[in-house]
């Protein structure tokens, strides 16, 4: 009888550990799914469908521009040197700092100029709190 109680206790402990692991994996998957759609100040990027919308309107981007935008959004608030962005252009025939500047320029044109901030000698960033938000808040106060 004691042996059966011991076996049941071991099975119960094993089942509880598996349940805890399953809960952890579910939470991890929820986090990964949330990253499939990135949002920032009216900008919505669906990574799975590779679709970009700005205030609900679809914007067409090249594959490289899309990948660059996703990388910048995933690293919001962090200054990214041009050299750090170069791997995005690995499939391109030429990849250098000029390619980064070229695609940043066209990304700004396709979306809005204040989205990506350049800090001379340091790199590029998408600020956590954008100038658009600050301007809207200032307008609401006045």
Spans of at least 5 consecutive residues whose pLDDT stays below 50 are none
Share of residues in helices = 40-55%
Name of the CATH first level of the largest domain: Mainly Alpha
Strand composition percent: 5-15%
The largest sheet has its strands arranged as 1-2-3-4
SSE pattern, N- to C-terminal: HEEEEHHHEEH
How many domains in all? 2
Morphology? elongated
Give the second-level CATH assignment, the architecture of the largest domain.
Answer: Orthogonal Bundle
- Mean of the pLDDT scores? 81
Largest sheet: 4 strands, antiparallel
Counting helices, strands and paired strands, the structural category is alpha+beta
Write down the CATH topology of the largest domain. Arc Repressor Mutant, subunit A
Number of strands: 6
* Assembly classification: single chain
Describe this structure in words.
- The radius of gyration is 23 Å and the shape is elongated.
- It has two domains: 1-32; 61-141, Winged helix-like DNA-binding domain superfamily/Winged helix DNA-binding domain (Arc Repressor Mutant, subunit A, Orthogonal Bundle), CATH 1.10.10.10.
- The N and C termini lie far apart (79 Å).
- It has a four-stranded antiparallel β-sheet, with helices on one face. A two-stranded antiparallel sheet has the order 5-6.
- It has five helices and six strands.
- The relative contact order is 0.11.
- 52% of the residues lie in helices and 15% in strands.
